[in-house]
Amino acid sequence: MTEITPLGIEGVWLYKSSVFGDSRGYFTEWFKSEILTSTTSKSLDVSQANLSKSKKGVVRGIHFSIAVEGQAKWITCVSGRIWDVVVDIRPLSPTFKKWVSTELDANSGKSIFIGEGLGHAFLAMEEDTIISYLLSSPYSPNEELVINPKDPDIAIQWPLEELFFSPKDESAPYLVDLIETLKESPHTGSN
């Protein structure tokens, strides 16, 4: 059984597929485009696929793209466990600055679909956590932006005490400093 449910911010859905396990391990269908399209009327044409490996306590994000074509993401935890966060950074959205979180782990059959114009971050909850990202547009350094994951206006309540940030994420500007850039972006400047 597969289901997709909205997560409280327009453009964010939790995908849950059955996990079939036995003494050999397990099998799950972690992405099916026809289910995404039929349930959400969205599609994900994959342009790039990434893997990241993180130690427990590592925070990655809040990242987003201002690419003209936008950048949707499909996030799956393939080893370990993450606390995944999506932030509404669209200034004209009724849920602007709201964030939603959910846990993903390697055995749950869960993935997150994040539509264009939203910020994404996650916290590795276990050692050697590996995440798979499917992206609708390729990485473009000039169009990839970061919001500080400790931004007090967003106020994410990270569930671990000891956190580790990259220098780029920790020194990133707050959302208020990026508002004009967001208003000019085709995917964050409107709902």
Question: What can you tell me about this protein's structure?
Answer:
This protein starts with a strand and ends in a 7-residue tail after the last helix. By secondary structure, the protein is mainly beta. The chain has helices spanning 33-40, 167-170, 179-184, and strands spanning 2-6, 12-17, 19-22, 25-28, 48-54, 59-65, 73-79, 81-88, 99-105, 110-114, 118-124, 129-135, 144-146. The strands form three sheets. It has a six-stranded antiparallel beta sheet with strand order 1-2-10-7-12-5, covered by helices on one side. Strands 9-8-11-6-13 form a five-stranded antiparallel beta sheet, with no helix packed on it. It is 9% helix and 40% strand. The protein has three helices and 13 strands. It is globular and about 55 Å long. A hairpin with a 2-residue loop joins strand 3 (19-22) and strand 4.
What is the secondary structure topology, with strand pairs?
Layout: E1 2-6, E2 12-17, E3 19-22, E4 25-28, H1 33-40, E5 48-54, E6 59-65, E7 73-79, E8 81-88, E9 99-105, E10 110-114, E11 118-124, E12 129-135, E13 144-146, H2 167-170, H3 179-184
Antiparallel strand pairs: 1-2, 2-10, 3-4, 5-12, 6-11, 6-13, 7-10, 7-12, 8-9, 8-11
